[in-house]
Each structure stands twice: as structure tokens, then as C-alpha cells.
Design a protein that fits this description.
The chain is an alpha+beta fold. It has helices at 3-25, 29-33, 74-85, 143-156, 161-164, and strands at residues 38-48, 59-60, 63-71, 90-92, 104-108, 115-120, 125-130, 137-141.
Length: 189
Amino acid sequence: MNGSCRRWCLTFAASACLVAVALAAEPNVASLIGDRSPTAILRTQPTATPPNLRFDSPHIDGYEVIGDPVAIPAKTAATLRALFSDPGAFVPAEKNYCAFRPGVAIRSGTEADAIDILVCFACDEAIVVPSGGTKAAQVSLTVSTRTALLTAARELLPSDEAIQNLPDTRRENPPPPPSVPGPTEPATE
């Protein structure tokens, strides 16, 4: 093997190792959630709202929480916990041209120890956010993960028309999810 070929091979091998290390270093949902159990589902405004515009509402990574948290029953919590601990349930985020607009957040743990998973059913992506922090990871949902999360959201938010009307599978060019009225905004018909 001549010198330039050897240099190219070494450079290529080093690059491949760096990529492998970078991929391995990406935190996954299971490691971020740890032993926390899902405790609540929260409805979120699907557009980022600067926190300084609504001082009285809680936000998760810039997304306003609408209404009160809904407690997750033990059976659903066990299903979600198994899903979150499955290393194949979430995959590295794909290049997506859909704007991330989460409609729900699933909280695991409580208070300062909580981890929220913001879920966008329009682009089938999720963002993992530690309590009071900012995005720790962004992942894509597998088809079975979308189905499980959508089933849980529909079960836990039975009177939420926007959640109930979400399609079972993601459309190729999804329209933005419907906005929900904020605490002080009147509902429009």
C-alpha cells in the first residue's frame, strides 16, 4: 500500500471512529428517564411562546402548558415505562422539514426530579427536557411508539378534540396541529 492510500485509510478510519463515538455519546430516552415512572400528561400549546409574554403560565422548553396535569393511572404508567426503557422505541432524530409543535408532554418523576417528553404527532418527534431545563435530546418515534403514545394521549385526554382527531399514522406533509385556546383566550367555533 502506498503512502497516500495509507493516509487516506487512516483518515477514514479515524473519521468513522469519531462518528461512532459521537453517536454513542448521544443520550437516549431510557438513560435520561432512568428509574422515573410516568406520572402525568400535560397538554401543550403547539407553538413556542416566549415565556416573557405569559408570566402566569408554566412552560416546558418554551412551550406553554395548557390546563392542569392529568395523572397517569398505574396500568398506563407501566406501559409507558416499558416503552421508555425500550432502546428501540426511539431512534436518532431524522432530518425533518416539519416544524416541531408538541401537543402533549409526558412527565416522568416529580417536581425538581421530573423529566418531560414533549411529543409532536405531526412530525413524529419528541424532545426530552429535564425539569426547568432545556432540550437534552431530540428523537424520532418509531411507528409502534407513535401508536402507544397516541393511544395513551387519547385515553388520558378523552375530551380533547384536537388529540382525539389526530390521525393514527403521520401524513407525509402534515398540516400544523390545531392550536388550543390559552387560559385567557376565548374558544372559537
